[in-house]
Every structure is written in structure tokens, then in C-alpha cells.
Design goal:
157 residues, mainly alpha, 3-stranded antiparallel β-sheet, 7 helices, 3 strands
Length: 157
């Protein structure tokens, strides 16, 4: 099931708040993006984690609605959860596969800064870099590019 990017962002924000940590808008964008890629790499076909598309912006992949919701915080810590669309479900405690991926992303990347996460998404050959080169800044990053990238990352030792 595809979720709203805000639901995935809220998952990470709840974890951060519970642990007495903070996340800035750049961190939340990248954590949602990495989760989206990892999720698709573990699913048959291109089943997305989130419904919305990521765009190739100057600081890496960005989901536009999430950006506009949190831009008020600038580079500072996000202080509240995202308001979620009522017509889409929150991530259920019974969705164990999704929760396992989100937990793994949090454990691996949750302590990295937004700039560190952004640098990771800017690597040569990344979906962002390919999209910028082929379609230009602001273009939609194809989910199949994201999936293939994360499949390849999983295959590396």
C-alpha cells in the first residue's frame, strides 16, 4: 500500500520526539526518500512506499508537498507532525514489512545531518544525478530508477 509522504515523515518525527532528538526539513526529506527506495527494492515490480513523486531539486530528491509543509522551519528543527490527508491511512502497526524498513532506515541514517544525507543522494550515477543530467532540474525522478539504485545498493557488500 502506498502512503502519503507526510505519514512516513510523521513516523520519523515520532521516533525523534520519543528519543529526545530533532530532525530538520532536509533530514526528513532524505529519510523519506531512502525509505521509499529501500521499500521498492524489496517489493516485486515498482510498488512505491509513498504515492507522491520525488523531484530532482538542487539539494537532491525532494517531495514537493513535504517541502512546502516543513519549509517554515528553514534549517532548524521541525517542532510538530505534518498534517496528514484524511483519506489516506496512517502506517498501521500490522504493516510489519513497512515498519521493519522504516526502523532499519532510522537505525542506519537517523543520526546523519541533512547535508550528509543530501551528499549521499548526489552520488554520480544516483537517480537524482541521472534525472538532472537527462531531464534537468525539477524533473520527476522515475520510481524504476530509484528502485534499481536501491536494489544495486543492497547487492553491494
Amino acid at each position: 500500500m502506498a502512503y502519503s509522504s507526510k505519514h512516513v515523515a510523521n513516523y520519523f518525527l515520532r521516533r525523534a520526539f520519543r528519543e529526545g532528538r530533532s530532525l530538520d526539513p532536509l533530514q526528513i526529506q532524505k529519510l523519506v526518500y531512502i525509505s521509499h527506495g529501500r521499500f521498492m527494492a524489496q517489493q516485486p515490480g515498482v510498488i512505491p512506499l509513498i504515492r507522491e513523486s520525488f523531484l530532482a531539486w538542487p539539494y537532491g530528491p525532494v517531495e514537493k508537498k513535504l517541502y512546502h509543509h516543513f519549509k517554515q522551519y528553514g534549517g532548524g528543527p521541525i517542532k510538530s507532525l505534518a498534517s496528514s490527508p484524511l483519506r489516506t491511512p496512517e502506517i498501521s502497526a500490522s504493516d510489519l514489512a513497512t515498519l521493519a524498513i522504516l526502523d532499519a532506515v532510522w537505525e542506519e541514517y537517523g543520526e546523519l545531518s541533512g547535508l550528509e544525507l543530501s551528499r549521499m543522494t548526489h552520488q554520480p550515477g544516483s537517480p537524482w544525478a541521472i534525472t538532472i543530467k537527462e531531464k534537468g532540474e525539477g524533473a520527476v525522478i522515475d520510481n524504476s530508477l530509484i528502485r534499481d539504485h536501491y536494489i544495486e545498493k543492497q547487492a553491494r557488500p
